[in-house]
Amino acid sequence: MNITTPDASTDPQLSREDALAVLNTPDESLEELVSFAETYRRKYKGNHVSIHILTNARSGNCSQDCAYCAQSCRSKADINKYKWVEDEKLYEDNDFVKEHHLSRHCIGLSGMKFTDEEIEILAEKIRKMKADGTHLCCSIGFLTEHQAKVLKDAGLDRINHNLNSSRNYYPNICSTHTFDQRVANIRMLQGLGYEICSGGIIGMGESKEDVVDMLLELREIQPEALPINFLLPIPGTPLEHADMSVLSTAYCMKVLCLARLLVPKADIRCAAGREVYFKGEEKMLLRVVDSIFASGYLTAGGQGIKDTIQTIEDAGFTYEIESA
Ligand code: SF4
Questions:
Q1: What residue stretches are annotated with the Radical SAM core domain (predicted)?
Q2: Ligand 1 within 6 A of CB of 59
Q3: pLDDT tens by residue, 205-221
Q4: Residue 221, exposed/middle/buried by CB under 10 A (0-12, 13-18, 19+)?
Q5: Is 80 inside any structural domain?
Q6: Fewest CB within 10 A of the end CB: N or C in the chain?
């Protein structure tokens, strides 16, 4: 693969070796790599950045043991735990999305399995919110096909279900479910017509080959959105003392370039870790990614949003806010 002469008329066709070479790009050649990836960012996303906001509808008490997660059964992190967020809050958020013409309202739920009764309760909430015409996304665990259909019939548009790491490395971060269960869940959802948001976490001790293999799997899946999280170790989780020295800004950038080159049409999102690993390098970041999280919630005085918008404008991009 020649990264110095991009041909925007065709998408890059990277082999596994090419992909590994992207992650092994010498730091002195990073600018060429970023320019190459930028060609496809501009081709599919123009000058546009979407900003996502995180809200949690269910928090804590998960039966699963994902090593990075504060909500897992082996986490001792001090977090807020609740089964359903107050309806008032959920619908207020949805009203906010509608009133501000935001492109999506996403609902994050901790946990991997839900009863049919819980899904019916969620479906009812989705029906109410869809009556407002908002585009809805749920970050939710494994659904049965029946449950996925119930939510689809209620109007749910998109589901977030991350691969998180490679098939090979997955047992190192989770023992309560498998990588293949995640892939099968996504395939089932795609079969029902759902849009998919799926990505991963970098910095959990995986090799570069693992990063490549995860992204190659995502190329097969072709999600509409591909979030990349850079680990922020949480006290009280098994990864609280993870060695983060591997996450230089240059390496993080190479991972995002690879995501853009392998799945060029997807929204490539720099999710967790942006403020830490790209501080002062936002202009370079936005040349490759077209989607980011803001650190503060979207309220009248949401400073996180203001800062994020300023960053985007300073870098010469236009923005749109999404609730996620
Ligand atoms: S399944 Fe989700 S909520 Fe549960 S531990 Fe894993 S990442 Fe956390």
A1: 44-274
A2: no
A3: 999 999 999 999 999 99
A4: middle
A5: yes
A6: N
